[in-house]
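Minutes, project check-in
Item: structure for the 274-residue chain
Input as provided by the requester:
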Amino acid sequence: MIGLILFIAVMGFTLRRSGLTWPERFVNDAFGTAQSVLYRPVGAVAGFFRDLGRLSDVYKENEELRRTVAKYIQDQIRYNDIASVNERYKQELEFKQRQEQLFSYKYVISQVIASGSNPYDKTIKIDQGSHDGVKPNMAVVTVDGLVGLVSKVSEFTSTVMPITELDSTAPDTIQISATVSGKEQQVFGIVDYDKENGVMRMSKIDENANVAEGDTVVTSGQGGVLPKGLIIGKVLTNQVGDFGLTHTATIQPAAKFDHLYEVFVVMTPDPDQP
């Protein structure tokens, strides 16, 4: 009871006082100084561990961002590839429909499954064969122009000889009869490949024919081998030919032989069938 009475008395005395005694001030200052000394290192240590936790979170976020960016790049590449393929298919479909409306030919699309890397064998293999109606000497084209002729046919594949590899000196060679498109006066000639100079040429052009740089050379349909209207290339130069009686023009092939994905086999109506 005495202790309780003393405690209540001291509490009442303390609450009524407006200031602190010097022992209390001394104790307060001592504790404040100790706290100020300890607060900074303790705060630094606590901040260090907080920063470690934040660094771990930042590292995880960066890893997630890297994965997201990598996936985005892959998706972008895939999208660009699909968009490019779709655009190519669209152009090929429009070309097929346009050509079949102009002529009574059937254009059968084929995938290029092999292209000869051997400098002595630059033939092209496609995934269409006799089972699909492909026959030797059929023309093979792209949207850009004439690629070559079917040289060998098996059941489900065929080999295509590019026009740049046709040997004009071979006894069984096929001569490409050509004409110049858009001329009022028809211009005829024979197109072959000059391996010595590495260019295509159109020879036996009449000396009075009007052939100029940039003219489009197409198949004439004469000779019964190639159908007419297939683009061969553009005229680069035109000069006097043998004995000065005819002219010979050099031609830049229209087809791009180093980027072949799909080609068309041109099937013409068989005159022997009703």
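Outcome recorded: The chain has a mean pLDDT of 78.
No further action items on this chain.
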